[in-house]
Amino acid sequence: MDKIAVDFTGVRVTALVELYLRWLDSKEQHPILGDTRADEAVQRLDFDFSQLKPMNIGRFAVGVRSRIMDEWAARYLADNPDALVLDLGCGFDSRVFRVEPSAGHHWYDVDFPDVIEIANQLYPERAEHSTIGASVVDPDWLMQIPGDKPVVVVADGLFGFLTEDEVRRVFKQIVDHFPTGEFLFNTYPTKTKKQLEKRPGPIFGKFGVSINWALDDERAVEKFDDRLHFVDEWSQLDRSLLTNAPLYYRALCAMIRAVPAWRQGTGVLRYRF
């Protein structure tokens, strides 16, 4: 099949980075996530993924947090037979195929129009699966989705690239639109944001990517809206999910777990409304 041309800069590059890291994970003897569709997607794209090698260590964190969100989303759907899914800033993720929701659960992938256009060429059509090409901060895209059912919202790697005002707006729009639901998302701590501002690194610096919103207190999101309630946090340093990771990475995670200030902001968060 013909290669699909990709010429991204800015935050859109993170769709390629995350796909690349899921692909690396899939090549491990004992993958954390095991995204079986990542290899075909990487092969289809006309992009030099070798330039992303400085990000290689990120495959463990991405594998862990994506697996956590997959499991939480699947659990929510099992408990709510009529619920739907919003995968915000989905990029080139094949999450809908990993979770495999049963009939009655409509799944919506949302990302920039040019990202969605390419994603639609990477993966086959699936019943009760729709893609929406729009910025998640656009006030109109949500009107395409019925608001009379419970919803589970996945934002894997998204919110840190929005401003705090934009994050607040996304939460409010969704909470206003649906009767009840959950948000599953990760964030970045202030220390990481400041480090990247000083030294963006070879990938973020080259493509112009920046962290715009940081979160140090997981309960701070409750202040966005009285209807939001913190439910759970699952660490990306979880020992049980890193059993087969290389020794050097497990040792690094052990060091981070041992220092509260370093451990801050390493969790995947779950909120309910």
Could you characterize the architecture of this molecule?
With 273 residues, the protein is an alpha/beta fold. The chain has a single domain, classed as Vaccinia Virus protein VP39 (Rossmann fold, 3-Layer(aba) Sandwich), CATH 3.40.50. Helix content is 38%, strand content 16%. Helix 1 packs across helix 2. The longest helix is centred in the N-terminal third of the chain and has 22 residues. The chain is globular, with a radius of gyration of 18 Å.
Which helices and strands, and how do they pair?
Blueprint: E1 4-5, H1 13-26, H2 38-44, E2 45-46, H3 58-79, E3 84-88, H4 95-99, E4 107-111, H5 113-122, E5 129-133, E6 151-155, H6 164-177, E7 181-186, H7 190-198, H8 201-207, E8 229-235, H9 247-258, H10 260-263, E9 267-272
Parallel strand pairs: 1-2, 3-4, 3-6, 4-5, 6-7
Antiparallel strand pairs: 7-9, 8-9
Strand order of the largest sheet: 5-4-3-6-7-9-8
Q: Indicate the proportion of strand residues.
A: 15-25%
Give me the number of helical elements: 10
What's the CATH topology label? Rossmann fold
Gross morphology is globular
Structural class: alpha/beta
**CATH architecture annotation:** 3-Layer(aba) Sandwich
Pfam families: LCM
Protein name: Class I SAM-dependent methyltransferase
InterPro entries: Ppm1/Ppm2/Tcmp, SAM-dependent_MTases_sf, TcmP-like
GO molecular function: methyltransferase activity
